[in-house]
Amino acid sequence: MASGYRIGDQHALHFLTFTIVDWIDVFTRRVYRGIVIDSLRHCQMHKGLKVHAWVIMSNHVHAILSTPETALSDVVRDFKGFTSKAIVKTIHDENESRREWMLQRFVANATTTARNENYKVWTHDNHPLQMQPHFIMQRVSFIHQNPVRAGWVDQPRLPVQFGATIRTNRGY
Predict the structure, then answer these.
(1) Cα(69)–Cα(75) distance, integer angstroms
(2) Which residues make beta-bridge pairs with 14?
(3) How many CB atoms are closer than 10 A to CB 11?
(4) pTM of the shown model
(5) pLDDT per residue over 45-75, tens digit each?
(6) At a CB cut-off of 8 Å and minimum separation 6, what does 134 contact?
(7) How far, in Å, CA of 167 to CA of 10, rounded?
């Protein structure tokens, strides 16, 4: 169910959270993180997506994104649609020990909405927050401290400068 948060200014800087349904720990496997990273790169190269900061946690992704020319809502829709299909296909194709359980949860969640026919991998809401200048560094810090708070790393690995297009995995 949508919370009422919407992307108003389609070209402004936004903090977004993409969450896997039922908080399933999909991204504990490198192969699924790779799908997200490859899709972000594709959106950068072909859809004008600017990735200003990001982190992939075990069951969600935080990012600060913008699209100077394309509607951000359209890019997010395409990103989530592609990654959903790729994650489900990979679950079917790989030696995934949680295959039956994960697919059952994705099918069960698909039955709760008319938007998904077979599988629902991501929750509908992205909780987009348009970034105001005084909150940008706070959100960047939140993103980079997330794996520290989770105990995955001792210190965040920060980009060289804020606003640079991120092209490589941050290692978390």
Answers:
(1) 11
(2) 65, 130
(3) 15
(4) 0.87
(5) 999 999 999 999 999 999 999 999 999 999 9
(6) none
(7) 22
